[in-house]
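Subject: Interface between my chains keeps coming out wrong

I've been trying for a while to get a sensible model of this assembly. When I model each chain on its own everything looks fine, but I need the whole thing in one frame so I can look at the contacts. Pasting all components below, labels as-is. Any help appreciated, I'm running out of ideas.
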Amino acid sequence: MEEYSVIGKRVPRIDGRVKVTGEAKYAADYELSGMLWCKILRSPYAHAKILHIDASRAEKLTGVKAIITAKDFEGWKWGWMPKTRDEPPLAEGKARYLAEAVAAVAAVDEETAEEATELIQVEYEELPGVFDPEEAMKEGAPQIHDYVKDNISWEFHMDFGDVEKAFRESDLVREDRFETGRVTHGYLEPPAAVGYWDSSGITIWAAKQSPYFVYRHLASCFKLPLNKVRVIQPFIGGGFGGTKNDSLAGDFCVILLSKMTGKPVKFVYNMEEELMTSRRRHNMIIYNKMGMKKDGTITAMQSKVIADGGAYTAIGPLTMYLTGFMTTLPYKLPNYKHDIYRVFTNHPISAAMRGHGVTHTRFAAEIQMEMMAEELGIDPVEIRLKNAIHAPHETINKVTVFSCGLSEGVKTLAERPEWKQRDRKKQEGPLAHGVGLSGTAYLGGARQRGHQSCAAVVRLCEDGSIDYLTGATDCGQGSDTVLVQIIAEELGLRVDDIDIKRVDTAVTPCDAGSYGSRVTVLAGEAAQKAARDVREQLARFAAKEWDVNPEDIVFKNSQVHAKGSSEQSMPFRKLAQIACYSGSGAVIVGKGYSDYGIEVLDFERGVGNGGTSYSFTSQLSKVDVDVETGFVKCTDIVLAHDCGKPLNPINVEAQNQGAAVQGLGQAIYEEFKMDKGKTLNPNFIDYKMPLSMDAPRIEVIDIITDDPKGPYGAKEASEGAIVSSPPSVVSAIHDATGIWFKEQPVTPEKILMALREKKKAAE
Amino acid sequence: MKEKRIQVVVNGKTYELMVPPWRTLLEVIREDLKLTGAKEGCGQGECGACTVMMGGRTVNSCLVLAVEADGQEITTIEGLSEGNKIHPIQDAFVEQAGMQCGFCTPGMIMSAKELLDRNPDPSEQEIREGIAGNVCRCTGYTKIVESIGAAAKAMKGGE
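Reply #2:
Try treating it as a single job with all components included. I did that and got this:
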């Protein structure tokens, strides 16, 4: 294997120091002179006509500078696809979910703005709401949007092979209903932005993990050319998809309010606002049918998926697509049929979240596969090894896999003492011990529809230091560090020699941002190419200096030399100076863009590569179930993770550990409690995310597969670990209790009830 | 309601401030003193992103009224490093990947500081208890626990 200087090393995060000292500024930390505060009035009803808005009392309050309602946006709406642009910045004509934004105020301070929102009088006519997606699909259910029938926000029908025939020829066929929970991202930084409108257009510091989404939305909403929209990225306090990958009422309102008042305007949602209104993970009901031969070979799978889409479309069609097209990984599946319905309800909007779409159907498939293996007397390791794909592999829906460490991962976990000794001690007092496995896949370098540009600019300074401009964003995942490692590697420099500029749409190249595990794979490729461009330009100057071929110039250890020569050598810094001072001064700028995996795919039918490469994660989880209280404590997690090659192993471990715990929360703790559209637990006291005492120590084992196409062999890292976590934990709970749970989260109440039922049945 | 005069010592510097009775210590630190290291996450004392030290013990500054801080000595994340030299706990968080998005980090480090002041040689369990009031959504806590363990070791001279 090629020996790298920086790639593959445990390089500390380049943003580490500013984050530990408190210097790193997040959106809410910015303030501008003369700044006003924006507060939003929200609907008290989940479904209601807005008959009249009277803001006259609020306008008279001292300190109030402007008030806006839907009409001020002149009917503008946004959405992921042209035909799904159904969401207005402020509710237009009717409110479709509880706490939807209805009006916004700008005032001299936060308290005054808040007070003013309470003085706005809105006359509503409450409409019957619908809160269950299966009810919403029925004829005669309250209609949430006029442009679709029966509240079907989106549907896909994917059909490959012949499932009916395969089921007839199977030795065992099972049908089960699974449900995934109502969970959210749970980042600690609520949405915030500070922005202003002036003669140069829009400038905004917004908490976005994909700044180029809001860039386009603002240009469209305010009818400005893109060069008049400047989105500057602060540090981001966690993203995980969804809300921070999209625009929000607050983003549009601060700009319009600034346009009206001539002052900068700021909003910061409080956590209750965030948890009541922000985009959350789709809750999905999955009717799954699987066929199997006696020897455990999976013959077919048929799924009917009904997703609670909430009040607007947002990125929902993509969620549904991922839910379907990824069904054929990571186990061989010759026949599959997938019918997916995303349904509007009067709930807050469902959208993307880490493990996007894949976590739902993979949970159903993993658990069902184990249930069937159990019926057939086949061990959880054996069933996985029997069905696991091996690279190279092409699925029936034309997904191509060039590297796959699934079997090696499962085998690695099967050798662990936690697995081998799992039957040694099953119960101690009230504690039942259980161990579970899972084996899952995730796509990296997402390339489905939408804008895909992904470029890098590398600018050489005359002293040999480097400015690196990228539109890719680090919202905590550590990608800035990895991208800088790539530039340093290509130029033979140290990480400290490279400065990465955070996204500023006025100067950085356009990029889709952080979603779909695309940054290392695609922005990494762009960075690599841009750095090579600089290297090639510099090599020509060095070659001229020494009268050798440019191809023979080597860049290493901050030095440049001609291959095979010890005399023809100089510091990188000196070559930079020679180049930059040559003639009237050369401008050395390297550029590169990613063209990895841009083949056209059949989105509607689910055919083709939705990603450029695929990671594989095997997870072992060990739990203690208290059979008296139903409480589950996860005591150990081991992940065997194939990300091709970890470019920064400590970062890859850290990402996986975080994803596994987020998945653990989803599996057993977290759930929004809803009552007629109202979120009953919009706070971190009652919405329970894992704390340090709830999370086990997590070990990560790298399964190196060196993807032939990824930069330095890399694929995506860690979105897979949020997919592997719920089935592995639920399988461990089964091992401890003998009960299969098919609905997330598996709460103590569910466990106690099921244990009681089991006891009753045995009597 | 009338504003009240308070005197606080923040990171070794004395401030005299006029504050309304409803204003929280977090608001005063962030907005009046412009020390934005402490963050507002949940605003209810659950997430710990606003953790600072008051009188040598950690508090959720979003739950402390500024008037309650009158006469108190307060340390925020900005007061932990000395000039260019960062504190060994901060150094350990950088080296051991103890942070990702960084939003919980200032509060987490303050909790770690209080723990190590009380108990210079904590077990893993004691470290987990020491940060039980600080939510981190990114790391899954493993690397935070390792960072604090490494800091404890470094502060004892690396034995």
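Reply #3:
Confirming on my end. Residues 27-127+185-277 of chain A form a domain with the Aldehyde Oxidoreductase; domain 3 fold (CATH 3.90.1170.50).
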